[in-house]
Amino acid sequence: xxxxxxxxxxxxxxxxxxxxxxxxxxxxxxxxxxxxxxxxxxxxxxxxxxxxxxxxxxxxxxxxxxxxxxxxxxxxxxxxxxxxxxxxxxxxxxxxxxxxxxxxxxxxxxxxxxxxxxxxxxxxxxxxxxxxxxxxxxxxxxxxxxxxxxxxxxxxxxxxxxxxxxxxxxxxxxxxxxxxxxxxxxxxxx
Length: 190
Description:
Blueprint: H1 3-23, E1 32-35, E2 46-53, E3 60-67, H2 70-75, E4 88-91, H3 94-98, E5 102-103, E6 108-112, E7 115-118, E8 121-124, E9 130-136, E10 149-153
Parallel strand pairs: 4-5
Antiparallel strand pairs: 1-2, 2-6, 3-4, 3-9, 7-8, 9-10
């Protein structure tokens, strides 16, 4: 086998291994997240309390609602997510905490809505699968997938306000009331 062919095979093998690593990111074994509620969330907007356990010291995470499933998240980070205004940044790093990151060792309030826009895509989580995506923050998170987690959520049906039917009372037929005429007797005193 010539050197060019060996090099081509080696590059192809490395590319395949790189693709496998990118599609099946390593995860921090002790790090975990849990949510207080994940089903029948309010369509107009809700808050999910997420607790992160064993986040490594000096590291931070982003938490935000994204379109996708657990299987999708296992292949790579979601692309369609809410904007930064609804993204929670939490950290254990004192420098990040000084920059207004939430304390990642405490329960985190994550705002969620059933419909949002991501770029030019309108996402409706009542029609497509969605979840809260957790990933390493900007302080090393571009290539670090060890803290990536996905919590599937569902939204309940929109509350339908039904106006009560008016109650129509039928008039009750009444018997005519006989009027008594009382005559007063006037007595004159002379």
